Amino acid sequence: MAEDCCRFQLISGDGVLNMELENFTRTTNLSQRGLSYAVVAIMGPQSGRKSTLLNKLFQTNFRMMDAEEGRSQTTQGIWIGKGIGIEPFTIAMNVEGSDSRERGQV
């Protein structure tokens, strides 16, 4: 992954907003962009390869499921990551699976 790739858990698996968002905006220079940025989000079923797709398209570094370890929840809550080499400046949002077995929603 590119060195300047940055990911951050915006909302925990318990639904709590991470108040350290300012650190992410400072690290990525998002705060200097004004309104000149794009946001892309992906939603879908657990183990639907959402993280893999975002990592391939935007060169983010979201944690991905290892199929050899079995299918299980990888993403909890909502994560955001800075897209690399994309204009306009792009934030990718990786959302927890919509049918998470771990939450009893099979």
UniProtKB/TrEMBL annotation:
Lineage top rank: taxon: Eukaryota
Keywords: Endoplasmic reticulum, GTP-binding, Hydrolase, Membrane, Nucleotide-binding
One Pfam family per UniProt: RHD3_GTPase
GO cellular component terms given for this protein: endoplasmic reticulum
Protein name: GB1/RHD3-type G domain-containing protein
Any one of the GO BP annotations: endoplasmic reticulum membrane fusion
Domain GB1/RHD3-type G: 34-106
Keyword presence, tRNA-binding: no
